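User: I'm curious what two different proteins look like when written out as structure tokens. Can you demonstrate?

Assistant: Sure. I'll show them one after the other, since each token string lines up with its own sequence. Here's the first protein:
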Amino acid sequence: MMGNSKEVPFSPTDSFRFCPADGARLGEARASGGTTCPECGRSWYRNSAPTVGAAIVRDAKALVTVRGIEPEKGRVDVPGGFLEVGEHPVDGLKREAREELGVEIEVVGDPVSLAIHNYGEDGIYVLAMGFKARIVDGEPEPADDVAEIRWISSEEVDDLDFAWKHDREFVWAALNDGE
């Protein structure tokens, strides 16, 4: 914790207690997890936050990154991140590749991986969508929250300390899909 902040109990699965639109106290959650505001009538749900990741493949190797920030600082990850509100997953993945690597990418096919996990200790649930991609312009350089990049073969995947198990499986699948 930083500065004068105090520890506040938080659960990524608890329902909202106050309406994000008007601040009214919300009632008990329905079985579906949603709750309706008595003032404005809007329904609110605690949902997984959408994220995207890229298995950028070139010459039978995949580009992986080393995280430069918490959570999981120093561990292996794939380029990507949280989608912005209303952003299409492919557009978000292209934005993240520019921000983190300084390259333009092209997504190859449909998602290779869909997974749910917690983002950090006491973190929110995320829905991680993984896409195979290729670089169409530029040479990757670490930027933003990336400390280092590595090109790895499928034989190296199991020896790396991935931040999230699903990324190991995702990279391995992208390298072994036969294309």
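Here's a second, unrelated protein for contrast:
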Amino acid sequence: MIQRRNSDLDLEERFTRESNRLNEKELDRIANAYRELLHSIGEDVDREGLRRTPDRAARALEFLTQGYRQDLDEIINDAVFESDASEIILVKDIELYSLCEHHLLPFIGRAHVAYIPNGKVIGLSKVARIVDVFARRLQIQENLTTQIAESLMRCLEPSGVAVVARTRSEFLSLLKD
């Protein structure tokens, strides 16, 4: 069994891509929505501590939703290779950050992705990038793991795939639906 920990992967590459950026017009629309939201709850958006908050929040949302602007084929980028490997390949402890689609609040955790090759393998760093593509969208954990597994099934056609995500959402105890 081949194992690799996420700490070995290039985090800088995973999180800084110019192609994942929103244009300025879209960022302004999001910042204006945050201004309106703050105003709607009774805040003074011109007070010192909040003056730049809408712009910062817009950039944060841009980052947390960059998966919508990423192309899986571009990320995989010919990193699929013919191989006679037949033992399970496991990439564990892939950090993930996502937004709950029900409350728009963050959940964080780690994913563990395993597959049994069937003639093809993928570069291990690409597995973490695939996790990011789906985590950086409005999401629920159940769909996240399915989307990761299905994408690996499509590109590798392995004998099997398993994805486990262990996430924590501190806000659940605060929200009583």
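A detail about the second structure: The longest strand covers residues 89-100.
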